[in-house]
Amino acid sequence: MDSIIILIEIAIIIILIILNGVLSLAEIAVVSARRIKIQKIAETGNKNAIKVLDFMDHANEFLSTVQVGITFVAIITGALGGTTFSEPLGIFLSQYIPYSYQISFIIVILITTYFTILIGEIVPKRMALNDPEDYSLKTAKFMQITSIICKPIVRLLDGSTNFALKLVGSEAKEDLVTEEEVKLLIEEGIEDGTIEKEEEDIIKRVFRLDDQKVDMIMTPRSEMIWIDLEDSIEENKKKIINSKRSIFPVAEEELDDFIGVVQAKDILSKLFEEDTIDIKNTVKSPLVVPESMLSMDLLKEFKQNQSYVHMALVVDEFGSVVGLITLNDLLEGIVGDIPGIDEEDDPKAIQRSDNIWTIDGRFSIEDFKDLFNIEKDLPGEVEDGYTTIAGLILSHAGRIPEEGEKFEFKKFTFEIIDMDGNHIDKIFVKVKDEKKENKFAQDKRDE
């Protein structure tokens, strides 16, 4: 009879340890499951997914239920194990050692604890981490029943916890997804193969565009091609034909005295209709924006103002034109360079060997940082406000450099190989191999 009772109690202890494991499995599964995946499953009508979302929305109650369940299971397992096995083990050990009953109790507790930790904690938690969404769905019904049973105790504990938190002045903060967390998720997706490299580039450019001002991606004034109404029709025709652009700012004598913009297709239409053309009659109202405007705000302006052409003139605080920006510039800020027949060649960085590059002076500083995996702002980038590699050199040198001049900057050596007046046109960039230099320095010390 005693042996039957012992077997029943052993079975109860095994069940309790398994129950502990299920609670641990459910806890880690729900906490680790990605909400967006569960939402997609719930949209198909899966009832367990809806339950899991409810657990996520009421995380405090869910975790309290799990803790209450695990605590009660641990207490019952310890008490039952101690009373069931310690006495017969103590009788057996009394033949050989003193304090047999005390020692047998400790042995039983250690064995019970070992299996509780192994089967009731570590194994189920590892399982949950391997496939949290699947296990959260499988345990949803069980956890719903458990939460109903434990509800009175959970409410008491929840109320007591809130009261204690108020006493110590701790308040819950709103859980917001930050830009850094999104970037980490993207990196995880790339490692898992669920996100392509091109998709990562686009997402990163969108975040960057939100922080960039229009002066970082605009065409600067020095490179603008504009129509001067004081020039003859023939001169303006040559300018339009040779430029290969499709839209031009229009001004009288000075670019700062602009009156609008004109599209090449409008001029062509008029020429088909008439032998002569008055460019002033084809001018359209321009969108004028300050150089401090964020690129994303300009994109909204383009979307909202249908009457404007998709070109904006950028002005400084004194109202002088400093550049122009098109919808295509903003699009390239998101998807990367898009070759166009009406555009000049974009500034390039050409790799000559492992550590040597030839880079155009107009090459974007953001593209330069991407090229060499630089995450932080460069010295003077914010203070001086430069947006190109030429601007970086001017900021570092503090003057207009001469052709053939070299500059050392961190791990880079810049050599000016072509100047166009005061404009830095081409730069020879050599990147130091830090690993080789460190090895060389180490060899020198060893000698």
Describe this structure in words.
This protein is α+β, with helices and mostly antiparallel strands and 447 residues long. The chain folds into four domains: 2-168, no CATH class; 182-211, no CATH class; 213-335, CBS-domain; 349-435, 2-Layer Sandwich (Uridine Diphospho-n-acetylenolpyruvylglucosamine Reductase, domain 3), CATH 3.30.465. Helix content is 57%, strand content 15%. The chain has 17 helices and twelve strands. It has helices at 2-32, 35-43, 47-57, 59-93, 100-130, 132-138, 140-168, 179-192, 197-211, 233-243, 264-273, 295-304, 327-335, 365-371, 381-384, 389-397, 434-446, and strands at residues 219-220, 227-228, 247-252, 254-263, 287-290, 311-315, 321-326, 349-353, 356-360, 406-409, 412-420, 423-431. A five-stranded antiparallel sheet has the order 8-9-12-11-10, covered by helices on one side. It has a four-stranded mixed sheet with strand order 1-7-6-5. A three-stranded mixed sheet has the order 2-3-4. Helix 1 runs parallel beside helix 5 and helix 2 (35-43) runs antiparallel to helix 3. The chain is elongated.
Quaternary structure type:
single chain
Please, how many helices? 17
Q: Roughly what is the average pLDDT, rounded to an integer? A: 80
Biggest sheet statistics = 5 strands, antiparallel
Rg (CA only): 36 Å
Percent range for helical residues?
A: 55-70%
Shape: elongated
N-end to C-end Cα span? 84 Å
Order of helices and strands: HHHHHHHHHEEHEEHEHEEHEEHHHEEEH
Please give the domain count. Answer: 4
Uncertain stretches of 5 or more adjacent residues: 437-445
Structural class: alpha+beta
Q: Approximately what portion of the residues adopt beta-strand conformation?
A: 5-15%
Enumerate the strands of the largest sheet in spatial order, edge to edge or round the barrel: 8-9-12-11-10
Overall strand count: 12
